[in-house]
Amino acid sequence: MNERKQNELEENGREDLAEVVEAAINERIEKQTPLQYIIGEWDFLDLKSIKIRKPCLCPRPETEEMASMILDAVSPDNIADFRVLEIGSGTGALGLALLYRWVHMRGIQKVKLDAIDIAQEATELTEENARIFGLHDHVVANHVSFAEFMARRAETKNDQRRVLYHLIISNPPYIPSEEVDDLESVVKDHEDRRALDGGVDGMDLIRDILNGAHLLLIPGGQIWLEVDPSHPKMIQDYLASAATSSEGNLRAIHAERSLRELRLEDSIEDFMGNMRFVKLGGGLALMIDRVMMALSNE
Amino acid sequence: TIGLTMDQAVLDRLESMERTYHELTERMADPDILNDQTKMRQLTKEHAAAREVAEAFSQWKALKEELAEAKEMASESASDPDMQDFLREEQDRINTELSDLEIQLKILLLPRDPNDDKDIMLEIRAGTGGDESGIWAGDLLSVYLKYASSQGWNAKVVESSEAEKGGYKTAIVEVIGDRVYSKMKTEAGVHRVQRVPATESQGRVHTSTATVAIMPQVDDVEITIDPKDIKLQTARSSGAGGQNVNKVETAIDLIHIPTGIRIFCQQERSQLKNKDLAFKILRNRLYEIELEKQQSEVAGNRAAQIGSAARSEKIRTYNWKDNRCTDHRLGENFPLQQFLNGNLEPIVEKFIMKEQEAKLTEFAQSG
What we know:
The complex is a heterodimer of chains A (298) and B (367). By secondary structure, chain A is α/β, with parallel strands linked by helices. Chain A contains 13 helices and nine strands. In chain A, the strands form two sheets. Chain A has a seven-stranded mixed sheet, sandwiched between helices. In chain A, strands 1-2 form a two-stranded antiparallel sheet. In chain A, α4 (61-73) packs across α5, α10 crosses α12 and α12 runs antiparallel to α13 (284-295). The longest helix of chain A is centred in the N-terminal third of the chain and has 14 residues, at 17-30. Chain A starts with a helix and ends with a helix. With 367 residues, chain B is α+β, with helices and mostly antiparallel strands. In chain B, a hairpin with a 4-residue loop joins β9 and β10. In chain B, the strands form two sheets. An eight-stranded mixed sheet of chain B has the order 2-3-1-5-4-9-10-11. In chain B, strands 6-7-8 form a three-stranded antiparallel sheet, with helices on one face. The interface between A and B is medium-sized, with 37 and 25 residues.
């Protein structure tokens, strides 16, 4: 047990450390409670002792790898007002790790993170961690589903209140529903199912993000997603098959065209050799989108 | 006293170094650099080195002026015998100081070991002697941590494998600070201890050893590693990974195939940090191998060889009964307790002096 936890326990008058340790071991072995929940923290990139609480998803090393890749691929340098959107922030690990590097280690101040999650606990935990790591001024955590988030944006009459993002990041639930029940107890019985279950093919939220990208992304911006290894191909197919129909309203037609303009720029293996990360970017259509949004009366 | 011929070439060189010092001072105020920890560390080292020369040179120039003034006053007061005596003494004093300073400047102008300012990774391995060698390795670790603390360095154990009966089988410490390599490089080699081990029940004296390696920290520009040469294993079982699995075993097992170097890193809770650490250790080991190769190729360069030992060379014997530690390269004894308290300065200073003497002799011989 690390020193801090030990001190905390001693402060709470728990003299008998052996009792505490034994209880923790039982919790771990019998109930298969994730160690991060028992200890209440872990490390993620530069975030030492980030707080982790049930039922938020415990950050995985793959996500850490993605954070590292994003840091190599993207930099807020020379951008007046760099905006990041994180969909499904959980503990806040991913977005906060990026911000920590940029704000505290590189001194870049003009970075903002909008973090959304459908779980109240996640929103609270993201805020708590943002405070702990001195990033509170750079982070807004919202308890809202992606669908609701997009709906609210659509209602906003004032164009200026619809910000666009330079970077969209997500570790969306990506496990096919059927497979969730086959997972080990330590995962399935303790972590928020909503953070794991991605629908029949695991692509539900991913598809929503792709559909909404043209309304969110600044031209030249990047989208980084952690996915199931079966997904890169499915994403490629989904983007390619977005048909242009002559029916439906202008917006629908345009949405489909924009989906085709969204490019799968790269799919990258994780350290296990699984196709784990996708990087997407937008083309010219996204710029036209901006113009169209400004011109049309929603 | 050996003076330094301060001809125009030398003066030009010193002026140029002084300019560099001022440039470096300005660079250190640059906000871009201030925010970049790596660049700042590098710059601070260069700055400290440049300052030494600049300050010594500045002092030399001041003394030269004083001397000129004294000479002027001497010629003005030719009729005053007391004044003449006083001024003569003054000139003698100043000349002595100038000589000393010129020796110092000479040393500073000599080519330095490019690794002297570098941070290091210090590796201690138990050698021969079974359990006792592991305990001895632990004792050495303790000594070096104390020494690092006394020098104001930052020392952190980054990898360790404990020995069953106490101490360590191996331990790697990252030491960061001012001129760490230059002071620690003479610790490299085999340290032999003669004492009654804690595990010994019949009071017999045993001899056991531990090996210390000092690896200057090198960045990826200096040593490049081909990803194809690396075999990396993690605790993640093969198969799904990602959201499907939650294992907190974040250990990294890294093998560098061409050299067979194997590094097992489980210090950090972040797998990525363990991976970075493993690669850092690998780079430093590869650099050390390079260095050894280079140093064994250099023949007859006394300055380079004083204190730098091959990994297998016995450099010191520590004898408990006689309360002393003998350095075989210096051929001198030092109080054992002093060493165990982490006070290595007397030994380090001796080596530095010897190194400087050798360099000066070389300089004198090369005309």
